Amino acid sequence: MRSIRTSAPVGRGRRTVLGAVGVVASLALTATACGGSEEDKADDKPDATASQAADGDGDGGKVTIPSDIADKLKEHGIDVDTWKDGGWEDWDKDKWLREAEDFVNPVIEGLWKPERMRSAEEADKTVTVKDARAAQGVSDPEPAPVRAAAEKTPYHDNAAPVGKVFFDSPDGPAVCSGTVIKDVNHPGRSNLVWTAGHCVHAGGNGGWYRNLAFVPAYNDLGKSEAELSNASPAEMAPYGNWWADWASTSNGWIQGGSSSGGDGAAYDYAVLHVKPEQGSKSLEETVGAALDVDFSAPSAAQAGRMGAWGYPAAPPYNGLQMFKCLDAPGRFSLGSGLPTMYRIGCSMTGGSSGGGWFRVLNGETVLVSNTSIGPTDNTWLAGPQLGEDAEALYQNMSKTYGGQ
After folding, report:
1. Which residue ranges are recorded for the region named Disordered (predicted)?
2. Which residue has the higher pLDDT, 130 or 258?
3. Whole-number Å distance between alpha carbons of 393 and 384
4. Residue 294's domain is classified under what CATH number?
């Protein structure tokens, strides 16, 4: 259901606390053990420390097209105004940009309105039975199904770094999930979002997607579809829309990614650098939360329990509410020659793609993977191990674009 390239530069037992995040708003990311009874869940949530938010520099909040993006469009014979007026809808396969340096994503203010967000369909990467059995000698036994639990509202108090990633593909508006992560080179002022590679690039069958935007704490109060029939932008996007001015994903996904994950699934991760459609503060300052990324790539046996967060959009879910699962990971691989991934039991469906997987490391909640692929019966999710290559991608994004 979910699914890379280095650019140039998706529990049983008791409810377990994954740890506190050192950010504003007394945030703590908690995971509900799916499969245990309501009576078998503890209610512990530690306090988080506060961080300072400073006013950012800007030009009065007015969004402008960076000159480098405008120049890149011109190199391909595309006028910026024409692009913003709908030229981006031209998906001529012979002209579909494929190279990392050809990622272009100028802000189209007002494009992602509440009704358009609700129309976006999940970016699904579904593993076939044949693929799932391809490496039975490498993979651990399939985990027991785990039913996803709804996150408590308001989301900004319980899972502030989590949000939705919207984008346009040749098939129309699409949606994934993502997580605000810290920027080691720009502490306290991060504009970085972690998601799946297949949420930014089509893999071996195409190029970069368009109109990529991140909406943290989407539908913050978890309102129903009926309640949101006339929703205002503030209800759907309490922190506004954040447009990606650059995206990085791995060569493994861009070269090997496919509709079922393919050889690229083990490299299915991406980092976005975003800017606000309106405003001047950084994403981390605005949301008041961000997570460190764990690039130690612990084995499934060493990793301990993991929690997966996201906005599942395929039935029986509708993409409006945030859900989570907690489970002890096992090993999963799509081939004996491919890297091992993590796999947990979880009923979340497409739309949860790209959502962060968290664990506790030295008493702190950190991002350790993201939802990549799952089976047609939605009983489990698999995500990549994040090692040296993923860290290099992250560092390049931080150093090259983090200060912008």
Report:
1. 34-66, 122-144
2. 258
3. 14
4. 2.40.10.120
